[in-house]
Amino acid sequence: IYALGITFYKLITHKYPVNERNYEAQRKKMTQLKCIDRPSKINNDQLWDLLQNLLEFDPNKRITAAEALQHPYFTSPEAIADVSKEQQDIASLAVTAEQDGDSTITEFDKDPTYI
């Protein structure tokens, strides 16, 4: 999950959240930091909350994959409104395929927010 957070952060900001020259220097920096500072490029509060949870240094406090998928950044009315007609059509086809006996269809195939 932490690696996903780093990837997501890098895609948005074009920088790494902790950018040190080697692994040991990075670990040292992480022990000195309480959390990662919010970059000015991230002005969406839900996105920042998700990233903070993905990038939590303590693995015992870090969000799980299932929790991340249920985060408001993905499930809020604004996020649902961004679901395209194509995503809805693909999900409908999956529902039909499952009804026709396709046992390989999962809940993710039928939910347009996962497509």
From TrEMBL:
Top-rank taxon, per record: Eukaryota
Gene3D superfamilies to which the protein is assigned, alphabetical: Transferase(Phosphotransferase) domain 1 (1.10.510.10)
Record GO biological process: autophagosome assembly; regulation of autophagy
InterPro entries in alphabetical order: Atg1-like, Kinase-like_dom_sf, Prot_kinase_dom
Pfam families assigned to the protein according to its UniProt record, in alphabetical order: Pkinase (PF00069)
Molecular function via GO: ATP binding; protein serine/threonine kinase activity
Protein name: Protein kinase domain-containing protein
Organism: Streblomastix strix
